[in-house]
Amino acid sequence: MLRLCSTLLLLFAAAPLLAAAPVRSTVFKNGDDGYKIFRIPALVLAANGNLLAFCEARTGGDASEIDLVMKRSLDGGNTWGPLEKVQESDDFKPLFGENPPEITIGNPCPVVDHLDPEHRGRMWLPFTVENDFVFVTYSDDHGKTWAKPRDITRDVKKPGWGWYATGPCHAIQLLHGKHRGRLVIPADHRVSATGGDKGPCGVQMILSDDHGKTWRLGLIDDFYDDTLESNETTVVELGDGRLYINTRDQNGKMPGTRAEAWSSDGGQSFDPSGAAEWKGFKPAPEIIDPPVVQCSLWRMTNNGKDPLVVFCGPDDHGPSGGGRKDLRLRFSSDDTKTWRDGPLIHEGPSAYSDMAEVRPGHGELGILWEAGNAGTKSATRIDFTVVHPYAE
Predict the structure, then answer these.
(1) Helix (H, G, I), strand (E, B) or coil at 167
(2) Which residue positions in the chain have pLDDT lower than 70?
(3) Are 109 and 118 in contact (CB under 8 A)?
(4) At 91, phi and psi to the nearest 5?
(5) Contact present, 172 and 205 (Cβ < 8 Å)
(6) Per-residue model confidence (pLDDT) at position 210
(7) What is the DSSP code string of 257-309?
(8) Which of 43, 146, 218, 284 is deepest in the core (most CB within 10 A)?
(9) What's 3's DSSP letter?
(10) DSSP label at residue 103
(11) Rounded Cα gap, residues 70 and 86, in angstroms
């Protein structure tokens, strides 16, 4: 009896340590659920507190048949429910006539509208079909069911643009200033006389000021020279209402691999950068160069402490020797004036990522990213973890 009591006391003493164990889970794994590859993660916290992880479910490579899928977590990312198909490629074959190609659906860019007085908590999901058509759908039940997708291509794609991608990562809703409530969707395009994925690329913002009833183009990087090839982009709203925009430089001649810009009118236009050769953008030298890859941003708070802007991407100078490996965080405590290195989240293959607060205001940040085992060459799954940046 004495031995039993001692054992119970030890178990109870250990319970707080067990409860505080780091959250780490694999959400999607290559080869599962009939799909060869899972890529392009996007993360959003639904209005009911569920975490939704979206990605592209591929039967092959970038141009193979691709469905848009998601999984749901009810416990802050510790466990995930079954795979759910949000959009299936077969449903879009009528767009392409009698002999449709293998249809790619992707580039998820979710955002929750917390300020719509008629549909508070509605979740919007922009996505693309064949990187040509732009669609939006929405859910009024936190991602359980989705409205029929609406084609907004004519509203947000200019003549002469070929390749088109939304995100890929979360979008944002503005919470400050005269544009409060605006939905801002980062996107990018290529200019090509023949369409497709050739030609120079640039960034654009898709905006809605009426809670998704209509959509239009905002700022556009249409400089189109080989100095900066702005591409996949992520955005946050700063404390003064400006937008901070960070983009992938797709093989441009600008120093480094990341560029940054600001917008004081809610994404309608760029602020002057002081660097005319890059239009609104300028190099982002304080962010140690990741490889050429998509990266993600989040701005968070912690019980009244100063806000923190978090940048997430692979570290080209990490322990695995560079390239798309070694996911690292970087922090700014002064709304992007300066940056400092944060912790290494994952050693080994690491590529695209997204972030969302697990419990807003409590300093808990969820990270969803493409991961692989240390010592291997490429990502084979999409993992999730929770970090506490204010404790770093």
Answers:
(1) coil
(2) 1-21, 193-196, 252, 274-279, 288
(3) no
(4) -70, -15
(5) no
(6) 99
(7) SEEEEEESSTTSSPPP-S-GGGTT-EE-TTSPPP-SS--EEEEEEETTEEEEE
(8) 43
(9) H
(10) P
(11) 7
Residue 382 CA: distances (Å) to CA of 216, 243, 370: 32, 29, 4
- Where are the chain's structural domains? 107-241
pLDDT digits (tens, 9 = 90+) for 205-253: 999 999 999 999 999 998 887 778 899 999 999 999 999 999 998 876 7
Distances (CA, A) of 101 to 36, 104, 160, 272: 19, 9, 22, 43
The pTM assigned to this predicted structure is: 0.93
| Pairing status of strand 111-113 against strand 243-249 | unpaired
Tell whether domain 107-241 is in CATH 3.40.50.410.
Answer: no
The contacts of residue 174 (CB under 8 Å, 6+ apart) are: 180, 181, 182, 184, 237, 241, 266
SS3 12: helix
